[in-house]
Structures are given as C-alpha cells and as structure tokens.
Design goal:
Strand order of the largest sheet: 1-2
Number of strands: 2
Strand content: under 5%
Number of helices: 8
Largest sheet: 2 strands, antiparallel
Number of domains: 1
Structural class: mainly alpha
Order of helices and strands: HHHEHHHEHH
Helix content: over 70%
Oligomer: single chain
Radius of gyration: 16 Å
Low-confidence stretches: none
Shape: globular
Distance between the termini: 13 Å
Mean pLDDT: 95
Length: 154
Amino acid sequence: MTDLWSFALSLYGRPAVADHCLHWQDQYQAKVNLLLWLMWLGHRQLAVGESELQQAETIIEKWNEQVTQPLRELRRQLKQAAADDSAVGVVREQIKAAELAAERYELQQLELNTANLVLQESPTALNRNLELYGLRCGASETEVSALLAAAADG
C-alpha cells in the first residue's frame, strides 16, 4: 500500500492533476494537500464525511497558515527577481525546498490522523471525497469532474 507522500508525488506529477489542484488553490483557496489526501483515500475506496474533512482541515490549518503559505508567497514573490539575478534564484530554490518540506509535514500529519478516523468503504469514494471538498470550496461540478478525470487512474 502506497504511503500518502509517495502517492502525492506520483499523482501531482501529472500535469493535469497539478494544474487542476493549483487552480483550486488559487481560485477557491483549497488546500492542495487536502485534495491529495482525499484522492489518496478515494483510491483506497475510503470516503470521508463532513466531520472527518473538518478534522483534517483543523490538523493542518495552523501549520499551513504560519509556515506553508508564507513560504509559497515568498517563493512566488521572488520569481521575477530570480529570473534577473542568479543569486536570488539560489535563495528562491532554497525557499522552494523549505516549502516542499512544509507540505510533506502536512501530508504526514494527515496520514497519521487517518488511523483515528472512521471512514466508509465505498467504490465511489474518490467522487464523494472530491465532491464534498469541491462543494465546501465553491468549485463547480465541471471543475470537480475535470479533477476526477485527471486523478481517476492514480
């Protein structure tokens, strides 16, 4: 059975999945790690309910707000300067590595918490999980369907 980090790297490595996840992040303030966690559970045919999703959000909320998001914002702010100055590029790459480590920590926390959840086995878990989070974030049915199609073979 694949751990969450390995699954996330493999699935997010698909350009369509990454594009959809980043769109949800930028458009709806969705947490990409929650999306990846929900897809990991879905591929294991485990469906979350509202309370389990809320618990997962709570687990990563403080870390995400205080560590992951600020690193992401700083990395994005340095993009143009890094293109013009290789020394800034080196710093930006170090920030990117720290951001990735912060994201990995979030995924580890989500995976550890999974053992404490009561999840329903369901052959439609992937759909249910993404529809639940999509509804919470405000994503359209079309956007949910597009992400499902991109993630379906994970």
